[in-house]
Amino acid sequence: MYSQWVLPLSAAVLLALIYAVKHSRLFNLFDHELHHLLVRRHDGFGWQIIAFICDPKLVVVWTVLLASYYIKNDQFMTGFWILGTLGITDAIGIVMKKSIRRKRPNEHLTLDAGYSFPSGHVLSSTILMLILLQLFGAKFGWVFGGAIIAIWLMVIISRLSLKAHYPSDVIGAASLAIFCFSLSNQVLLVIH
Length: 192
Prior knowledge:
The protein contains 7 helices and no strands. The protein has 192 residues and is an all-alpha fold.
């Protein structure tokens, strides 16, 4: 499904963003200004619903249900691959948040606590999207794939619109998810 360049490219983007967020005042100023240009309003009940539906804790529940289905149907490798992919990705995201300690935009909702980089919502929804596309994309076709990608894009827009994250936070989360997903696919190929 993925070509050989996805793993190193996603790693390079992620590492460049980590370095820039941690060490470049100019980059952070640019990120802040870009966020300000992209997001004019701080509202949107619809965006709050999208953020709730794709909350990382809820994505874990959906992923456990999906994995349970595969395990129940004697597809243990697929079930454990689903759990492992999300679990490792989320764990790395949590460690990164606590290590980088980037503050959220000033105007964020008090509902969004914790650090900003990488976005947990975008991280978990990207992993879930990639898993769903891998498992069901060929079976259900382009309409399914388009719907999944549309929902994923709405999650990204919701995190920016609700001023919970800077643009680099969502790009970093997507890069981390793509990196972890690509790596887990490589491991699955070796094990299988």
